[in-house]
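#dry-run=false #mode=assembly
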Amino acid sequence: MTESMPPSYRLTEEQTLLRDAVRTFADERVAPRARDIDQSAEFPQDLRELLAAQDILALPFPAAYGGLDADLLTVCLAVEQLSRACATTGLILAVHELASLPIVLAGSPEQHRRWLPRLASGEDLIAFAMTEADAGSDVAAIRTRAVRDGDDYVITGSKRFISHGSVADLLTVFAVTDPDRDASRHTRLSCFVVEVPTRGFEVARIEHKMGLRGSPTAELAFDGVRVPAVNMIGAEGDGFAIAMRTFDRSRPAIAAQAVGIAQGALEAATAYARNRRQFGHRIGDLQMVAAMLADMDAATESARQLLYKACVEIEAGSEDASRWAAMCKLVAGDAAMRVTTDAVQVLGGYGYIDEFPVERMMRDAKITQLYEGTQQIQRLVVARALLGKSDRPEAERDN
Amino acid sequence: MRIVVLVKPVPDPASAGERLGADGRLDRAAVPAVVNGNDEYVLEAALKLIEAAGEGEITLLTMAPTNAPETLRKALAMGAHRGVHVSDVALGGSCAVSTARVLAAALRQLEFDMVFAGIDASDGVGGIVPAAIAAHLGLPFLSYAARIEPDMFGRTVRVRRISATGYDVLEAPLPVLIAGTQALGEPRYPSLKGIMAARGKEIVTRSLADLGVDAISVGGAVATTAVLDSRMPPARAATEIVRGTPDEGAARIVEFLADRRII
Amino acid sequence: MGTIWVVAEPGLDGGLARISAEAATLVRDLAATAGRDAIGIVVAPDPAAAAADLATYLPVVWTIAEPAAADNAWSAVAAGHVAALIAEDSPDAVFVGAGADGRDLAGAVSALTGLGVLVNATGVAWTDDGPAIEMSVFGGKLLTTSGFTSGRGIVTVRPNVATAAPADAPGRVEARTTTVAKPLPAVRVVDRVNEQNAAAPIEEARIIVAGGRGVGGPDGFRIVREIAEALGGAVGATRAAVDSGWIPYSQQIGQTGKIVKPELYLALGISGAIQHKVGMRTSGTIVAVNRDADAPIADFADLFVVGDLFEVGAALVERIRTRPG
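#status=ok
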């Protein structure tokens, strides 16, 4: 056949350069810290500062505000490389990207001028405050209220499981501005940028987690927190739409984290299989081990290629952006869990102890199946894209 | 303040691929080149000096085969302003004597207050080229620098030279050639913005004709040295690995050393 | 008769540098096999003491009294004289130690005379075509034998390649004068500072005990020092330890530090990454202690003890000290 094939995407020279620079940085500065970060469960402030100094945190922002104008794929390349060394560190960039998306995508020029420069320089960190104790997958169940009072809104309520909630300087908070029971979930919520610390705001607790232990996951209490009305992103009621647009770009970043974790585990297991000898052979030569490693590599690579393709499609404004975002996150999260579990298996007893990194990677991987939309939510999104809108109205309400 | 930094691309020591070509010379095409470790330290020193002075320019100068522009990119990304790449087919196989002459010729075409070079290339030439270049150009030569303090107003520079017992303080009028060490301070990582900016920075190529150097006076045919033979070092015996209590480990070490008559 | 020269590097207090005594011994032996005359050269403000010492190794020593060498960097001053001597007397080979001054001299003399240079010789033999120099290149991955295409040239010699051994009878010292037509620019030495913790150059040590990232801090180096002392060795370090400020750069071993080849290299808390490996992999015996069984150094050490370097180290010091004899 001579008809021309659609060009397969290739990384541009610029993307390759940036990816390689982040990779070197991750190998030399992040990897040596990874174990410590997990064991101490302390937020790596030193690495946060280095990420800022290296302009890595500037990637997602427009050049006009001191950013690097990086496209979604480039941001994901960076998250992937960082996560390969340390999932907690990869998350610093990922959360910084996704939490600022409401401002970038839907903010006014004045709001851009106000917040983006400090986010691009890394002076300020930002976190995404949507989830509540009773509102995880079920966004409609959000109860935090924002009530207009003069030139302000007053926010009351509480958020839970907010990554970096205790170290962020800015929070994108989703709160109910239209509490009417019959109001559609599409119009109930609004999005606000809250600058913290501020009166009435408190970090109520930090969770002790299975993995990603260096990343502080916080419960945030808003007790009559005043926020100027000019801090609202978009108009009243735009919150849900903003959130949906955000997810199309935040889910790939988490997929990138998952791919990075899987790659790190694959490399650790492969190195081990090369060196470890039993029965007179390197264990990598034993077929059951070799097969596991091959499957791990295939799973990681397919997750990676799907991610890269999804990024390109989403960046190009595909109508199916949500499908791509959900699918890449679904596949990558499952791949990370599988690959890290198998990595522990390859190392045998040594995989279970903290002398080797794979047990940490397995604990870190699990979250990628849970946050940024559970795997079940991702499946609903993909199914809906496949099957079209349901003719069951209650199904519509399910997510 | 104008500083020229000599940059030597060397085979990446982390790769296993360094080898000699058929002519007994380093096969530079065989492995990716990276900037010689110590060159980054002197570049960092140069960057800090111009940052402190609030003005100045850094030019990189390298003599290397055609893949040099890639190795210069990292140095440009760190903050150097431009590069000069001396490249000529006739240079292949040049010995240290020719290298020094050619680099001296290139420097004659540049304006500078100081030339910096890193001590000791990691691929075998052992640090004599900077001294030779200085001699060709009649520049004061200050080596093994741990600290560099120029006085642009007085047109002098002071250098701390590492000595067996500490350091000597050397002083000379500008322009000078300084060979620096790692003690100058850890080089910065190129920031991502630096990497992007480097793509727009100029690298000028100079051939031997551009430098006024006769091609027959350089290159493998007239090299002053030649590799007569090469071989792999004798393989080390397999590593003996000892696990157990600290005392057991210590006991084995003592036994091992005694067996080899080291203690 | 042809001649082979060795230029002495300045030692402490006007004496003879140890590396020069070694190089002189090597040259004397080489000259004997080559059927050449061995000659030593001392350029100094007052060469008498160093020359007398050098003459215990060589049959002939030429001295050049150069007052400018007193307060100026030595190599630029000496190079002019050495180049003038070479122009006059055409030696077959000129040797110098591969110390800092020796290397600087070799480079300058090479430029002044056009003679080639072979560096970091680990062995020397004589052939019909002049000296054949053994070198270790690519961080120890390859051993080469090289020569000068013209049969003549300059060689720098690593420390510990030869053992300094006086000749049967001391040689004679001859003062010489040379005219340096175009002297190299002199570099003034404004001050010489002794630092308290400056150690003897580790390239010369027979035993090196080195600490890496695993040592954890400047205090951690105490055990490294104790072991070095107990073994009669020198203290070395990796780049990580030096960059963290735990120990001076002069003791750094590796690609951007020193290349060493001691009889024993004892690595404590050192991973053995390539940067460091190229600095010590040709050591006679390599013993490593590290908590991480997967450290790269386990691949090329002769003996690898998996354990805590402080605990193993303390036990080791105890055992060495209480050994009989």
